[in-house]
Every structure is written in C-alpha cells, then in structure tokens.
Amino acid sequence: MWFAIITLFPDMFAAVRDFGITGRAIARGQVSVTCLNPRDYTHDAYRRVDERPFGGGPGMVMLAEPLADAINHAKALAAEQGLMNVPVVYLSPQGRKLDETGVKALQHYDGMILLCGRYEGIDERLIQLYVDQEWSIGDYVLTGGELPAMVLMDSMIRRIPDVMGDNASAEQDSFVDGLLDCPHYTRPDTFQGLDVPDVLKSGHHLEIEKWRFLQSVTRTKARRPELFKDVTLSKQQQKWLNE
Ligand code: SAM
C-alpha cells in the first residue's frame, strides 16, 4: 500500500512511521509513506500557504495553488511507481464517516493521496477540481487532518495480509464479523479478587469458541444493539444462541 500525504506537519507522521505494527510494515516495505509539504510548492518569499477568507470572518483558508502542485507531484510519483488506482482523499469532518465497511472498501486501491487540511479548511475550488473522496473520522472537529489521516492509514495497514503477527487476530477484532470482540484475559489467574473464567483454562477449544461467541453477542446487544441486526450467523453459532 502506497500513501502520499499532503501535510504542513510531516513530522507528525513519525507516529505511524516509527512505531509498532505500522512502523514494522513500513520497514519491511509492505507500506510506503511519502510526505509532501505544501510550503515546498509556494513561490513567494514568505512561503504562504493560507490567506484570509473572501467574505470576511474568522480564521484562514488554505490556498489552492500550492495544494494543487503538491497533488500533481504526488500523482507523478504514483505514476512513476506504476500505480494507477490512487484516489485523492481529503480528510474532512464533512466526509463519509469511516467504519469497518469503509476501511474494507478503501483496501482495493493501490494507494492514496491523503490531503490534510488546517485552519478553516481548504479553498473549495481545490476540493471540486482535485478531490475524489472525502472521509471523516467522526462528528467532531479537530485542528487538522493529520490525526484523521493517521487513523485511516492505521486502520488500513493493519488489514494488509501478513502485516499483523497473526493474520487471524485482525479477523477476530470488533466489527469484522459484525460483532464486538469478546473480553480477553492473561496472567495472573486472579487479579485483585477477579478470576479468569475457568473455560478459558480448560483447553477445550470448541467450548472456548462458544464462550467467546456468546460473550461477543452479549456485549454487542448491550453496547451496540443496532449492529446485531446485520450479523450473519453460522449454523453452529445459531445453535449456540438457541441452547
Ligand atoms: N471549517 C471546517 C468545518 O467546519 O467543516 C473544519 C476545519 S478543521 C478546523 C481543519 C481541518 O481538520 C479540516 O480541513 C480537515 O482536514 C481536518 N478535520 C477536522 N476534523 C476532522 C474530522 N472529524 N475528520 C476528518 N478530518 C477532520
């Protein structure tokens, strides 16, 4: 997976580049991350990337021209790599809200150019002319698109085959099969008076699977009941549920 990120704060992406599973995926060459700073595409002495809004009002608006040049450069880099299927994605609170279905849909691209806004946002004409998709990470407003871009990248990178130590672990997470994940326990057997459920220490794999499934169902119904109506159950799971 190839990511080009248009950002005024490239150093922030150390959080994805230098740590944990995402950092390892980049080090192994499973993921490539390039940051392009709009300031490097300005032509004035002050390297201006923002201006006051037409019509007045508070805040500044990101200039279209340096962003357009940065996007064109990112597109050229993608073409050099032979990547055809690379949409320009603007992280925006007005975009489609990211969820597991969205992450799966984005997985089909060879890569993407992620556009991170700052200030009041970006000149609308740049969005009209250059942006293919807008994605939001939730109904609240952040100061910039960098954290949303990293959220999107992390959610995609961990679904690339062989990026996780154990591919099965991503498959068992919340939302993948429509249910929330079951609770997890590790050592010690007793922590401040609370014991690990006996079944998890029984070594009986089918009983453990059944217990985990029923825990997932209970949690989903209690915490996110709206998810449960869309879940497809196997015959075995239906049997467990009706026992
Ligand atoms: N004036 C804009 C509005 O109300 O729609 C908000 C601008 S926000 C202060 C600055 C930048 O942060 C946006 O251009 C966008 O890139 C990013 N951003 C803020 N909240 C976001 C969210 N929930 N999801 C994705 N991006 C977000």
From TrEMBL:
Catalyzed reactions: guanosine(37) in tRNA + S-adenosyl-L-methionine = N(1)-methylguanosine(37) in tRNA + S-adenosyl-L-homocysteine + H(+)
Binding-site residues, S-adenosyl-L-methionine: G117, I137, G138, D139, Y140, V141, L142
Key word Ubl conjugation present: no
Family as reported in the entry's similarity comment: Belongs to the RNA methyltransferase TrmD family.
Subcellular location: Cytoplasm
BP terms from Gene Ontology: tRNA N1-guanine methylation
Keyword terms of this UniProt record: Cytoplasm, Methyltransferase, S-adenosyl-L-methionine, Transferase, tRNA processing
Domain tRNA methyltransferase TRMD/TRM10-type: 1-229
InterPro entries hit by this protein: Alpha/beta_knot_MTases (IPR029028), tRNA_m1G_MeTrfase_C_sf (IPR023148), tRNA_m1G_MeTrfase_TrmD (IPR002649), tRNA_m1G_MTases_N (IPR029026), tRNA_MeTrfase_TRMD/TRM10 (IPR016009)
Gene3D superfamilies, per the entry: 3.40.1280.10, tRNA(m1g37)methyltransferase, domain 2
Subunit field text: Homodimer.
Species: Aquirhabdus parva
Protein name per its UniProtKB record: tRNA (guanine-N(1)-)-methyltransferase
Lineage, highest ranks first: Bacteria, Pseudomonadati, Pseudomonadota, Gammaproteobacteria, Moraxellales
EC number(s) per entry: 2.1.1.228
GO cellular component: cytosol
One protein family per Pfam: tRNA_m1G_MT
Primary localization class, coarse: cytoplasm
GO molecular function: tRNA (guanine(37)-N1)-methyltransferase activity
Described purpose of this protein according to its UniProt entry: Specifically methylates guanosine-37 in various tRNAs.
